[in-house]
Amino acid sequence: MIPPYLLQEMTHLTGEHLVLVLSSMAIAVGAGIPLGILLTRRAALRTPLLGFANVMQTIPSLALFGFLIPIPFIGGIGKRTAIVALVLYALLPILRNTLAGILGVDAAVRESAIAMGMTGRQLLWEVELPLAAPTIIAGVRIATVTTIGTATIAAAIGGGGLGVFIFRGIASVDTAQILAGAIPAALLALLSDGGFSWIERRFSLS
Amino acid sequence: MNSATLEFYQVSYSIGDNLILDDLNLRIQPGRTLVLLGRSGSGKTTALKMLNGLLFPTSGSVWVEHRATTDWDLIELRRSIGYVIQDVGLFPHFTVGENIGLVPRLKGWTPERIASRVADLLDQVGLEPGKFRDRYPRQLSGGQRQRVGVARALAAEPKLLLFDEPFGALDPVTRVELQDQFLELRDRVKKTSIFVTHDVREALRLGTEIALLHRGRLEVLTTPAEFLNSNGPEARAFLSTL
Fold first, then answer.
1. CA nearest to A105, candidates B125, B91, B110
2. What ipTM is given for this predicted complex?
3. Contact at CB, A119 and B87, closer than 8 angstroms
4. Where are the alpha helices (DSSP H) in chain A?
């Protein structure tokens, strides 16, 4: 179905795609979870931050990539801009689930932890984060699967990845090329979804 | 480090215009069991939570061991107080043994000392250590969970025990069993205890003193025997439920 001459390029573009997804997820998780924790401590920040993340999600993805191009430092053509856009997209599910997971910890459990003399840090690491973990992981799972799909748009602004095939295939009405981009992207999404569902189960058992 | 003296001195507490506690004055001698009796909203839980610094008076002061709660290092204060609440609040991701051993671990006890303390406490609350230590709270009945809650409160040899309607959610038979156990433990460990309840029967049974709170005010402070002869309207209202 996929001609052999595309296979080598497919390997290369899949690699690029993974780099896009992994770097943006690393940033989104690294920023999203601490920010989510901050939101549990500072209720006043919830509306503005969640509002911002919400607005980012409502911008059609193709437009968001386009909007970023003229912005200095983070914009321009290429991978960096693509990663910024993907991070902005992935932020909302991670933020929201971190907040929901921690606020969802049973009030009696939290009160006990405080009354037993846990410090703020112990409360966070020993009680809140372990109990919120399944919810937080579910957020990261949604964000990752979405990002794998959305990352195909990176090609539109010169970010590379499997979208290169898809855009080229559309331009030249070449179904083989579209599939050469779409199939690996779909497989990546399925694989990561399965992987995360396994991790989620492990965490909710403990 | 065995038993604490407590005092409420002109304590008031309000949220906005809502006065929850109104000029509460109380002193509790070491080793006594004071029952705070009252309806929902009478301020009894609020008073209790001031003893371990979960709440602070709007005016007045609360004294534990001759030191105001505002002058205590709260972490240190709380680790020296056992706290049992109606919803138990066991950590669902910790085993029974880890739940009971938590405060000792926070205090830096050795694992061996914690393990033997946990086994000892499970015995004391009537749960077989070999059988229950490695279970998770969700694998226990309500009564067993509250026994673990009591064991957890006793774990680090606290000088003060606080109980917030601990047996309120249990069936009547289990409740009486746990009350018996409370009396037995109290006579053995001789800790100052504060016990919040709205059940006058429980108050008469467990208290060495009963403080009746009504709309944030202390109505009666007396022994169980004398409480039966109280004439105030709120005391009569409670006694009529007997």
1. B91
2. 0.90
3. no
4. 4-41, 43-58, 61-68, 79-103, 107-115, 120-122, 129-150, 163-171, 175-205
